[in-house]
Each structure stands twice: as C-alpha cells, then as structure tokens.
Request: fold
Amino acid sequence: MANTIVKIQDLVKRYGDLIALDHFSLEIQEGEIFGLLGPNGSGKTTTINCLLSLLSFDKGKIELFGKEMTPVSYDIKKEIGIIMQNVAVMDELTVYENIDYFCGLYIKDKAKRRQCVDEAIKFVGLEDFVKFYPKKLSGGLLRRLNIACGIAHKPKLIILDEPTVAVDPQSRNRILGGIQELNRMGATVIYTSHYMEEVEQICTRIAIMDKGRKVAEGTKDELKRMIKNTETITIEILEIPDSVLKEIAGLTHVYDTDYSDGKLAVYCSGGKHNLTRVLEVLQNNELGFGRVYTELPTLNDVFLEITGTALRDKEE
Reply:
C-alpha cells in the first residue's frame, strides 16, 4: 500500500467575510501525478500556499510525509520542489549559476551539488545554454530553466503551477514528458493547469475545486462517469424530418438531440452501440448522410456539468 504524501484535513481559510477554503480535505498518495483543477478564485493557490506553510489558516490540519507541516518544518521543506507560474530566476546569474544557487539552498556539499546541477541541466535539455543569461532565453527555455531550479535537489514532492503557460508546442511536450519521467524516478507530483488535454495526458488522479470546496475527485475515467453525457454523436445530414428526429430522441440512452446547420448532434448517457442504433434509424427511413463522428466526454465537459461553467470560460 502506497504511503500518504499529502494529507489535508478540514481546511478553512477566511479573508474577512470571504471563505477561500471551506472545510477542504485531500489526500495524495506516493507516486501519483495529482491534478488540482479549478477556475481562478476556486482556492487552488490558497491550498498550495497553506500546504507550503506560507499562509496561516483558520482551521484544519496539514501533514506531509506523515508529519505535521509548520513554518519551521525545514526537514519537510527540503523534500519539496516548487515550480510556480511566474518564472522565478535571477537575471544577473547564468543558467548554470541559477540552478547551482537554488540547488545550494538544499545541498551544501559542492561535489554532490555539482552532480545534481549537471543532471538537472541534462534533464531539461539546457546543455547548450549553460552560460546564457535568462534574458537571452526563449519563453520555452526559460520555463525549462525554472523547472531545473525547482528539481535539481531531487525533491520527493514536486508542485507545478501552470508550468506550460505561453510556451511553444515542442517545449510543452518536453516539459510534460519531463514531469512523467520525474514521476517514474520516484517523485510525487501536484499539477495545476487550465489546459485540460495536459491533465488528461499525465495525471493519474484529479480533484476539481470550486468556491473553496472539492466538488469531485477520481481518475479521469471515474470523473467522466460522474456526468450525464458519456457520448456525443455528430452526423452531417442535409435535412431530417421531425418524425425521424423524434424517433432518434426516443432511443434508449439518448437524452437529447439538436439539429442545426446541417448537423445532427445526439447526446447519449451510458449504453453501448449508440451509434449503430442511430444510423439504423436513418437507414430505415432511407435518409442519406455524410460524415459521422463520435466524441467521448472531456474533463472540460465534466467541469461544465459539475460547476455549470466551462473551466476555460471561467479563466477567460
């Protein structure tokens, strides 16, 4: 059985009359890549700051690695790596010097630190840029430097807050692959992002927050099973009689339909062979149709149904 790395119990944080965290609880097991999702104002950043003991809270308890976390828990803090959304490096230091400086906060032995810095540089692919200053780096390379500074000391728990914002696709893929490799090497990861495709790609378990509360938790497949829409079938068809549309709407597992601009959308909840049944109705009524495709729900669909608003819409 995996060890519990993060345990948050009944956490409450108030800012005057505003309740930022409303009896929030969460457990993260060793070896997970745990996605923490929610719109701005949902409590994600407050949770992370409380977790790091950078922020006091009104009620509750936080344990990391089985020990209570406090502002002076330096033995715990040295096992944590933090990569926040805003790049935190020093412009007057080179790539190598930046990584060496942050690694030196945790590792005093020079030989060991040199090895860790070299490994971090190789890990993020910055071998050709060690003498560069941050202002000379592209956005993607700067993100890689930020990650290297956060993981050079080989932390057991890594917190990444929006690490791929405003980077090119190549750098994004490298960062995501790097996170998975860190996880394979033994790190437990907390990952926040508004890019749902990233979360689906790398996270083993996910919690959705809204208004300071945990509104859903599970694997991506478990979350998708929580919502009504399990499949959307779209068919290009020039026209469809109301009687046929009504027949499709009456099929088992079909809970809604929509026809507009030459496209028929059929929304299904559960069941198998839904597409086959819909096409049989069209064929039995001798109706021709064009392109057909089916879509499974996404995490954004889950967020939309659970909170009433799409996550990306809330962000924008």
About this structure: Residues 13 and 57 are 5 Å apart (CA to CA). The first helix runs from residue 44 to 51. The chain has a mean pLDDT of 92. The longest strand covers residues 4-15.
